[in-house]
Each structure stands twice: as structure tokens, then as C-alpha cells.
Amino acid sequence: MTTIFGVFDAQAFVVLIIAVVGLAPVLLYRTKTSRWFLFAYAFLFVAAFTTNFENVLLPEVLNLVEHIVGNMGTGIAFAVAAYMYRRQTITADAETGEAPEA
Question: What radius of gyration do the chain's Cα atoms show?
Fold first, then answer.
């Protein structure tokens, strides 16, 4: 297995770099997007960060944080975001009198 700095898995490190770079558009468009999307991205960032640092310190704790907080939090946040978006879309369609698309 290839490592970076002798500690980080190369694939997990690339995911962390992409997550850090991805913070720029998320922060720039934070006023135009749903708050739940921001929560989901924050949970993804937590998962990427803890994946890399679980080999350095507290492996059991950071592994639990990665899976419970990061991955499960992301799933819940995206589900709530989809529900909220759909609810707003149905409400907007009801106000305009148009039938929602199937």
C-alpha cells in the first residue's frame, strides 16, 4: 500500500485534498444553497478528515466518528435536504396551480 508521509493512505489523502478544495465553492455559495447541503458537506469533510487521521491517533475513536458522525450524518443531512426541497417544490406548484412532475 502506498502511503504519504509514511502515515496517510494515498487514496484517502486525495479525498481529503478534494474536500479541502471543495470548501471554496461551498463557502462562496452558502447563502444560495440549502443549510442542509452545508451540513451534509461538513459531515463529508469530517469523514474525510477522520479517515486520514485515524492512523495517527485514537484509531478506534476516529473510526467511530468517521462512520457515525461523518457517514451517517451525511446521509441524514442529504435526506432532510431532499425532503425540504421536495416540500418547497410541491408548495410552489400548489400555489401556481401546476401539477408536480412525476
Answer: 18
SS3 letters across the chain: CCEECCCEEHHHHHHHHHHHHHHHHHHHCCCCCCHHHHHHHHHHHHHHHHHHHCCCCCHHHHHHHHHHHHHHHHHHHHHHHHHHHHHHHHHHHHHHCCCCCC
- Could you state, in order of their start, the residue ranges of all structural domains in the chain? 3-95
Instruction: Tell me the pTM.
Output: 0.68
* pLDDT tens, position by position, 44-55: 888 888 888 887
Q: What angle do CA 28, 78, 65 make, to 5 degrees?
A: 90
